[in-house]
């Protein structure tokens, strides 16, 4: 079993990189609401995976460390996106690069 601080630290590291993975899935034409929903769901999934990876499945029996880690991933991912990845242009660039280009229709 990992300590709570170790789990939260790992969760913070994962959360800081989660916006880059989220940008691969998101599309520039999506609404702000849709992007927020996808970002929170991706961070939630990243938090669950972090808890399972660091502490094993039995870690979920200990509610406080598991919840704290998932909350840390969500909070840090949102903060990192707003403070680092969006202003520097990395997240929007990844969205643009990974968006399939539409082909012109014959007509």
Labels describing this entry:
single chain, 107 residues, mainly alpha, 76% helix
Q: Could you explain the architecture of this structure?
A:
With 107 residues, the chain is mainly α. The protein has one domain. Helix content is 76%, strand content 0%. It contains 4 helices and no strands. It has helices spanning 4-25, 32-55, 63-88, 90-98. Helix 1 (4-25) packs across helix 3, helix 1 (4-25) packs across helix 4 and helix 2 packs across helix 3 (63-88). The longest helix is centred in the last third of the chain and has 26 residues, at 63-88. It is elongated, with a radius of gyration of 16 Å.
Low-confidence parts, pLDDT < 50 over ≥5 residues? none
In one word, what is the shape? elongated
Strand content: under 5%
Q: What structural category characterises the helix and strand content?
A: mainly alpha
Distance between the termini: 63 Å
Q: Helicity level, as a percent range?
A: over 70%
- Alpha-carbon Rg, integer: 16 Å
Quick structural overview:
The chain is mainly alpha-helical and 107 residues long.
Task: Write the topology of this structure.
Blueprint: H1 4-25, H2 32-55, H3 63-88, H4 90-98
Helix pairs in contact: 1-2, 1-3, 1-4, 2-3
